[in-house]
Design goal:
Low-confidence stretches: none
Number of strands: 20
Oligomer: single chain
Radius of gyration: 22 Å
Largest sheet: 5 strands, parallel
Shape: globular
Helix content: 25-40%
Bound molecules: succinic acid
CATH superfamily of the largest domain: FAD/NAD(P)-binding domain
Length: about 500
């Protein structure tokens, strides 16, 4: 099939139609931009599924310094303090941006923003929209704003498959579209592709989110940071369906308890109990399940009668599963929910590859450290989109002559069991090495599994190298913190080389 080459005349391309991509496009206006989305805008973006809202210190008892200190505490020594400070201090302006764009936030009878509580926040500071439908409402407003901005050209149904390079810098995007491959020639590209939930069997994310942005960046030679830090949400509704319906932390914020089949609140010995940070609650639930118990969320007493009204999305998921939260316990288990690591970026969203920016979950700004504080990610996406747009505007477009090769669409099906087994809530060196060995040949192939496998291999290698437990990365063979908290960095070439070394070493020796 012939390759159609389209010269964008200097326009940048944003890949991804979630909150990060849409906000970047809106902040760029009136500079013309092309926004590439695999699905129709609003469909299949994990942003639209967000129940929790945006963390922002607006309460009378709150201030950005407290938000910062909660963020750093949750991040378990690995947040980039300056990045975290700048982002939480910019949160208020981000909420104003969204309100200005038409997001209808939930308000008190007096007209102020209603503030919810989520785990590890010392104050009520979660702004919601449409109750537990926050992401949906934000996306509604942003999609409408994008559609009515004439300088934003939205191209739906195209999957970005490779970044074309020339002289070490970005020269274009190769995408598969309904009529075949197309090469979009541009010197400026923003990745806003979301996370990696589709690489795991148990996830609360759309299954199509399988690390495409990480693969695009890695194959272009970018450095990726802190990939081993993957957040598991403790309260996904347990049942046969995948992805798993999320039961927002806000439900525990309103008093719901975690119990086992005997009715025991087994978290009562954990500091913070149900509202301890997400990594701690996820591990406690995981271990209790592994010990042969069943685990449930109990909303009957609190939030009680207001549950269905305040959490309609969750109530509807329960209804579909035949559970009446007013009478029944809700079965839960941890599920992959968010990726703290990503493409290493500075605060302008610049990656290590000239001409390439990243924004939102695909990027690693350093805000989240080893464990993201709940509802900090939508705030980060909205705040950073402005900075990315400013940086893009300040970077002149250069004419390019891209060279590209063809590439099939990504399919993580055979990779999923490998990551689910080795890179879950509890990890150990033996399982990580086995996963890396199995992922290497898949990553070296040129087929639908190779990009998901390349992403999995990079994660397995850095998880193996981090011989400590910190935040969401828990090694049963290295249960303590290392003396010094350090970030991890990796490139695809380094991961492939490490994978080959591992494959060449005798199994028994490499297990030591
Ligand atoms: C939740 O509502 O529990 C999820 C919020 C988040 O992941 O930030």
């Amino acid at each position: 099939m012939s390759l159609h080459v389209l010269d964008l005349g200097g326009r940048p391309v944003i890949i991804g139609g979630g909150i990060a991509g849409l906000m970047t496009a809106l902040h760029l206006a009136p500079e013309p931009v092309l926004l590439l989305s695999r699905s129709p805008l609003g469909a299949d973006a994990s942003s639209a599924w967000a129940q929790g809202g945006l963390a922002v210190s607006l309460g009378e008892d709150d201030e950005p310094a407290l938000h910062l200190s909660d963020t750093l505490a949750a991040g378990d020594g690995l947040c980039d303090v300056e990045a975290a400070r700048l982002i939480v201090y910019a949160a208020r302006a981000a909420i104003e941006d969204l309100a200005h764009l038409g997001v209808r936030f939930d308000r008190t009878p007096a007209g102020g923003l209603r503030l919810g509580l989520e785990a590890a926040h010392s104050r009520r500071r979660i702004v919601h929209a449409d109750g537990d439908g926050s992401g949906r409402e934000v996306m509604r407003a942003l999609v409408a704003a994008v559609r009515s901005t004439p300088t934003i050209e939205v191209v739906e149904g195209f999957e970005a498959r490779r970044l074309a390079m020339e002289d070490g810098r970005i020269a274009g995007v190769l995408a598969n579209g309904p009529t075949g491959p197309v090469l979009l020639a541009t010197g400026r590209v923003v990745l806003a592709t979301g996370g990696i939930g589709g690489l795991f069997h148990d996830t609360t994310n759309p299954l199509g989110s399988c690390g495409q942005g990480l693969a695009l960046a890695a194959r272009a030679g970018a450095t990726l940071a802190d990939l081993e830090f993957i957040q598991f949400h403790p309260t996904a509704l347990d049942g046969p369906g995948r992805p798993m319906p999320l039961i927002s932390e806000a439900v525990r914020g309103e008093g719901a308890t975690v119990v086992d089949e005997t009715g025991r609140r087994f978290l009562d010995g954990v500091q913070g109990a149900e509202l301890a940070s997400r990594d701690i609650v996820a591990r406690a639930v995981w271990k209790h399940l592994a010990d042969g118990h069943r685990v449930f969320l109990d909303v009957r007493e609190k939030p009680g009668a207001t549950f269905a009204q305040n959490f309609p999305t969750i109530a509807s998921a329960c209804g579909k599963a035949g559970i009446d939260p007013a009478r029944d316990l809700m079965p839960i288990r941890p599920a992959q929910h968010y990726h703290m690591g990503g493409v290493a970026v500075d605060l302008a969203g610049r990656t290590s590859v000239p001409g390439l920016w990243a924004c939102g979950e695909v990027a690693s700004t350093g805000l989240h450290g080893a464990n993201r504080l709940a509802s900090n990610s939508l705030t980060e996406a909205v705040v950073c989109a402005r900075w990315v747009a400013e940086s893009l505007t300040g970077t002149p477009a250069c004419r390019t002559k891209p060279i590209a090769s063809d590439c099939p669409s990504a399919d993580p099906t055979i990779v999923r069991p490998l990551l689910s087994r080795a890179l879950g809530v509890l990890r150990n060196g033996e399982a990580l090495k086995a996963a890396a060995r199995a992922l290497l040949p898949l990553a070296e192939r040129k087929d639908a599994a190779s990009d998901p496998a390349a992403v999995g291999l990079m994660i397995a290698i850095v998880a193996l190298r981090r011989r400590e437990s910190r935040g969401a990365h828990c090694r049963t063979d290295f249960p303590d913190h290392a003396a010094v908290a350090s970030h991890s960095e990796i490139t695809l070439n380094a991961a492939l080389a490490a994978g080959r070394d591992l494959a060449a070493s005798p199994v028994l020796e490499s297990l030591s």
